[in-house]
Amino acid sequence: MIYIGCHLSVSGGFAAMGETMLSLGGNTFAYFTRNPRGGKTKALEPADAEKLGTLLKNERFGPTVAHGSYTMNLCAANEQTRRNALDMLKKDLVRMAYFPGSFYNFHPGSHTGQGTETGIRLIADALNCHGAARNDGRQRVGGRRKVRRAAGNHRPGGTKGKARRVL
Fold first, then answer.
1. pLDDT for 43-71, tens place per residue?
2. Each residue of 101-116: pLDDT tens digit?
3. In what order do the strands lie in the sheet containing 103-106?
4. 81, 123 in Cβ contact below 8 A?
5. What is the number of domains present in the chain?
6. Distance (Å, rounded) from C-alpha 131 to C-alpha 133?
7. Overall pTM surpassing 0.70 (yes/no)
8. Residues 85, 122, 145, 25, CA torsion sign
9. CATH code of 34's domain
10. What CA–CA distance (Å, rounded) separates 119 from 157?
């Protein structure tokens, strides 16, 4: 099966994204989990998320793609920046529990001069800690993760080999 979709705004709510994609003739979509350049997100309305989950299942949608904030930096030298990124990751994965099988696309950040090895370790630690978060003590939350490679000297995921080491 081929999945066709586009990036949609979550501003009208989760169910509205699914309805919009149906009206466009698609069967998947991508969306930002929060403001892509600032990190703020609106409160989750469980009934709205559940409505989308039902629509995705009933209409046989392919996996959706949740896109994390560009400001997330899981390997920052600044501890507060790293803590904020970890909080974003955890909250995004909890939101994704409403949409089983979805992908989470994120840019892991820049090691900001700490070195590639430190950056890789910090990203891997974050994924090991929060990627296996559980919402009820038993059930893994979130979906499949995709580490997005980015260009630049301070990007630990900048090559396929480095991205493999993170995972």
1. 889 999 999 999 999 999 999 999 999 99
2. 999 999 999 999 999 9
3. 5-8, 28-32, 65-67, 103-106, 144-147
4. no
5. 1
6. 6
7. yes
8. positive
9. 3.20.20.150
10. 9
